[in-house]
Amino acid sequence: MPSASALRLQIEHALEHRFPAALTPVQRTIRETAATGIAAVDDLLQGGLPVGAISEITGPVSSGRTSLALAFLAARTQEERVCAWVDAHDAFDSESAAANGVALRQLLWVRCRRSQAGLPKPASTARTWARPDFLHLDQALRATDLLLQAGGFAAIVLDLASTPAEYSARIPMATWFRFRQAADRTRCSLLVLGQEPMAQSSAAVVLTCTRPESPPAFQTVFAGCTYEVRTGRVAAHPSTPFLATQRKPPASTWSANAAWQRETSA
């Protein structure tokens, strides 16, 4: 009985004229990346966040999620590229963004307000979708979909950091799949900020941020805060994978710059 390798050679030989390289795996290529502006994170990601894909940045409050996203937008907007920030809970601080180097003239800020006139509500879940958190989430997803379909944006940040995890977990997988396809088509880097990963297999990169060091209780100024970034999953793109999945994801630490030092009342 012929071996499996012999059978494969026979099949390839029979199909080589009709279907060239029918059983030959697609050659792995390197996906285009964009630097975050933070050397430690760029080294961890071997160049930066992927272009034309979804990157999730997760973690608790004050873990460095927003700082990392702003650093990435600063690098993109300083290259005269247009970016967008979809703010699900109207929590974006434009002054802090400018202090971190984001060119606001190159940034579209989409603010999800409390006024929900005209938004359709599913008949079976009208009471559920009437809650403010769900309405803000619905607005943010609709806005992100429109921006991705329109094209022309180098990067879009979908800020769901203040959305409860039990709400964001209900986002259909079809939504994330549509976002992934649109981002790949328009070559847009979609950054999703949240408490927990949401996009699952549709995300190319998942970064988990933690803050291992806290300032002493008696300090009134936050300075020299150290953050840790860990890759929880680095998924391969169907056609152009750029990194292999790692069993024990590496971690990297970085410090917030001086622009993020804020005075608090004693």
Short description:
This protein has 266 residues and is an alpha/beta fold. It has helices at residues 4-15, 39-44, 65-77, 94-99, 126-129, 132-150, 165-168, 173-186; strands spanning 33-34, 49-50, 54-58, 83-87, 107-111, 155-159, 189-194, 203-210, 226-234, 251-255.
Please give the structural blueprint.
Layout (H helix, E strand, L loop, with lengths): L3 H12 L17 E2 L4 H6 L4 E2 L3 E5 L6 H13 L5 E5 L6 H6 L7 E5 L14 H4 L2 H19 L4 E5 L5 H4 L4 H14 L2 E6 L8 E8 L15 E9 L16 E5 L11
Parallel strand pairs: 3-7, 3-8, 4-5, 4-6, 6-7
Antiparallel strand pairs: 1-2, 8-9, 9-10
Helix pairs in contact: 6-8
Task: Write a structural description.
This protein has helices spanning 4-15, 39-44, 65-77, 94-99, 126-129, 132-150, 165-168, 173-186, and strands spanning 33-34, 49-50, 54-58, 83-87, 107-111, 155-159, 189-194, 203-210, 226-234, 251-255. By secondary structure, the protein is α/β, with parallel strands linked by helices. The longest helix is centred in the middle third of the chain and has 19 residues, at 132-150. The relative contact order is 0.18. Mean pLDDT is 76; it is low at 116-130, 235-249 and 256-266.
